[in-house]
Amino acid sequence: MSIRHGLLALLERGQMYGYQLRAAFEESTGSTWPLNIGQVYTTLSRLERDGLVRPLPESEAGQRPYEITDAGRADLALWFATPISRNDRPRDELAIKLALALTTPGVDVRSVVQAQRSATMRALQELTRLKYASDRPEDLPWRLVLDSMVFQAEAEVRWLDHCESSLVRHRPSGPPPPLPGPGADGAPDATRWADEGARR
């Protein structure tokens, strides 16, 4: 989820200022995506620059609310109507980490897998605890977010199990045998090649 479209969706509910937007964003995501106020105001500045929101006069308390524009509503509607492509998501750092661990000398890949599995299992237990902490109807939005995170953690554990079983079967190949050197006429020395082959 982009912070940009998250703020637009919140402003579609009505005018809000920065701290209200941050609180509403964290409430909507079950505090699984904490925002700092700097991110909120930086994003609002970009949205204003792009004509998707506009600032309103400051309140007596010195707070400046924002409202969504028609262009912002069109952009938000397009975002909701467009499926999220896997190519738009961040690269999987864990998959890249394990791929590099396999090819980096001195790294115990099984230990890397086991450490990650332990951490993911702890996270899964905590997410499951949070999921069942409340069943109020108004908590449905953040429970759906938690469900997504639970499913992702479960899938990660299954993938790590697959990685470990693949490591058991994995047999690193040794360096390729050296090619025969040239003979007196510059061609490969067939006799020496045959002798080496017979000794193998």
Please characterize this protein's 3D structure.
By secondary structure, the chain is mainly α. It is 60% helix and 3% strand. It has 8 helices and 2 strands, in the order αααββααααα. The chain has helices at residues 3-11, 18-28, 37-49, 70-81, 93-103, 109-131, 140-169, 190-199; strands at 53-55, 66-68. A two-stranded antiparallel ribbon has the order 1-2. α2 packs across α3 (37-49) and α6 (109-131) runs antiparallel to α7. The longest helix has 30 residues, at 140-169. It is elongated. The relative contact order is 0.09.
Summary tags:
200 residues, mainly alpha, two-stranded antiparallel sheet, 8 helices, 2 strands, 3% strand
List the helices and strands and how they pair.
Blueprint: H1 3-11, H2 18-28, H3 37-49, E1 53-55, E2 66-68, H4 70-81, H5 93-103, H6 109-131, H7 140-169, H8 190-199
Antiparallel strand pairs: 1-2
